[in-house]
Amino acid sequence: TKPAGEQPATTSSSVDALSSTEINAGLKEALTRGADAAVAQLGQKDGFFGNAAMKIPLPPSLQKAEKAMRMLGMGKQADELVLSMNRAAEAAVPEAKTLLVDAVKEMTLEDAKGILTGGKTSATDFFRKKTEAKLTERFQPIVKATTDRVGLAQQYNQYAGMAAQFNLIDKSQSNVEQYVTQQSLDRLYTLIGEKEAAIRANPLQAGSDLLKKVFGAVVGK
């Protein structure tokens, strides 16, 4: 059994036997599958809110304020803010699909072999670099439109903005739409990475001859 986090062993001969075109096509298929599955899972009602592992909480720096609200009988309002944050994430995620698919199509042969023989989520990591900035731009207006309907979103922005000025919280959490956008994307890429890791770990179960051939070349022997 391999220790957690250890990179899979590779045989250079099996990887060298693959063409760059095959590697590129295999990575594209794996990423397309992962993106489709992640968007389908998260971009529906309760995709975030109904999944304990994916649910977006208030940031730790504001959880003390949340506790105070509950002590003052404002638990319902706090619940509404958390719900609206998660509903905003669920509304934004479907917007990712076109950009993700376009990014897959644009993948070149240049780094294909290095990505294939990298870590268990190296394709997803490469993918994230190519898409995160564009997805952030696409997500934030959608998140803002949803969270603005809840009065506490303005209170969040006021409190968090002041806290950011004194370096009490990260500036990425200084308004609710930035925070929810980042949390949404973190979870989206995490799911895509899990799908990639699963294919790498067991390509024979991937249901695709191409994935079996490409990822079978880097399965630990």
Q: Work out the radius of gyration.
A: 20 Å
- Portion in beta strands: under 5%
Please count the beta strands (DSSP E, at least 2 residues each): 0
Q: Helix count, per DSSP?
A: 10
Global geometry: elongated
Which blocks of ≥5 consecutive residues have pLDDT under 50? 1-11
- H/E series: HHHHHHHHHH
In helices, the fraction of residues equals 55-70%
The average pLDDT score comes to 84
Walk me through what this model shows.
Helix content is 67%, strand content 0%. Helix 5 packs antiparallel against helix 7 and helix 7 (122-147) runs antiparallel to helix 9 (176-201). The chain has ten helices and no strands. The protein is mostly helical and 221 residues long. The longest helix is centred in the middle third of the chain and has 26 residues, at 122-147.
Secondary structure elements and pairings:
Blueprint: H1 12-16, H2 20-42, H3 60-71, H4 75-92, H5 96-106, H6 112-116, H7 122-147, H8 151-165, H9 176-201, H10 209-216
